[in-house]
Structures are given as C-alpha cells and as structure tokens.
Amino acid sequence: MSISIICVGKVKEKYLRSAIDEYAKRLSRYCKLNIIELSDEKTPDNASGKEETLIKVKEGEAILKNIKDNMFVIALELKGNMVSSEEFSNYIMDLGVRGESNIVFVIGGSLGLSKGVLERSNYKLCFSKMTFPHQLFRVMLLEQIYRGFRIISGEPYHK
C-alpha cells in the first residue's frame, strides 16, 4: 500500500521533524510513505473573506496538481467524519481489500481546504473539533496511520 500526505506549509521545528522522521521509519514496515510539503500562501492579518477564498483556491490548485486519478483522497476536514482508532484502521483495511492501494491524506493550510479539493476528496476525516497547529497535526496523523497498521496486523498498541 502507498500512503501519501500532501500538506500545506513546511515543518521547521526540529522536534516535530524528528517525530515525523520516526513515524516515517516505523511506517516503512507497512507501506510506502510519501510526504509532499507545499508552500503556504501568506495571509494578511485583516484578510477579507474574498482574499481568504483566493488563498484557499491557490493552495488548492497546488494540492490538486499532486493528486493522480488513481488516488483515493482523504481530506482532513472539520466537517468530516470522526472515528475511533479502531474504526480508522478498519477503514484503511477495507480500502486495501477494495483495491484502493494508493491513498492520499490532504492537510490544508491555516484557512482550510478549497472547495475544489473537498469536491475531489473521496472521504472527509475529522480528528477533533479542536484546532491544532498544522505542523503538530502532521505528527498526529502519522501516529494514527501507524497505529492503524499495528491494529490491522494484530500487533500490540496502546489503547
């Protein structure tokens, strides 16, 4: 199985980069992992709704350029489905059984995802109604993907 993560913004903090590298190493036993970091657009402090929409559209175009037709797209979206770790692992396993072996997770910028990206997505996933820093969220997503593969493999994991 191939897992890609397309994310807007670069991780600069060394401790977060170390965590990302650690989970990437752990995941190499279970899947081929590809992390694609895209530049984020600068948002003015007092941006209007129109300016914010234009920024999301521009970031969305960059995201969509990295999505191939054969990819199953999971958008990380506040209005998405909230599931347990077990339900998440079952979902990933079911995708594999259905032949969806090229999965891409999309993490938008600070303003969220464009309408175009949401329309292209096959599934919308929400981790929490709480807001997290995008760089930290990347680590959280990798940890849940790793946990999901451990559950699928019947290996121990922390409940």
UniProtKB/TrEMBL annotation:
Subcellular location: Cytoplasm
EC nos: 2.1.1.177
InterPro entries reported in the protein's UniProt record: Alpha/beta_knot_MTases (IPR029028), RlmH-like (IPR003742), tRNA_m1G_MTases_N (IPR029026)
Coiled coil: none
GO cellular component, as recorded: cytoplasm
Reaction catalyzed: pseudouridine(1915) in 23S rRNA + S-adenosyl-L-methionine = N(3)-methylpseudouridine(1915) in 23S rRNA + S-adenosyl-L-homocysteine + H(+)
UniProt-annotated binding residues for S-adenosyl-L-methionine: L76, G108, F127, S128, K129, M130, T131, F132
Superkingdom of this protein's organism: Bacteria
A Pfam family per the record: SPOUT_MTase
Keywords assigned by UniProt, alphabetized: Cytoplasm, Methyltransferase, rRNA processing, S-adenosyl-L-methionine, Transferase
GO MF annotation terms: rRNA (pseudouridine-N3-)-methyltransferase activity
S-adenosyl-L-methionine found in the keyword field: yes
SUPFAM superfamilies in the record: alpha/beta knot
Top class in the EC scheme: transferase
Subunit field text: Homodimer.
Family as reported in the entry's similarity comment: Belongs to the RNA methyltransferase RlmH family.
Function in brief: Specifically methylates the pseudouridine at position 1915 (m3Psi1915) in 23S rRNA.
Protein name: Ribosomal RNA large subunit methyltransferase H
Species of provenance: Clostridium estertheticum subsp. estertheticum
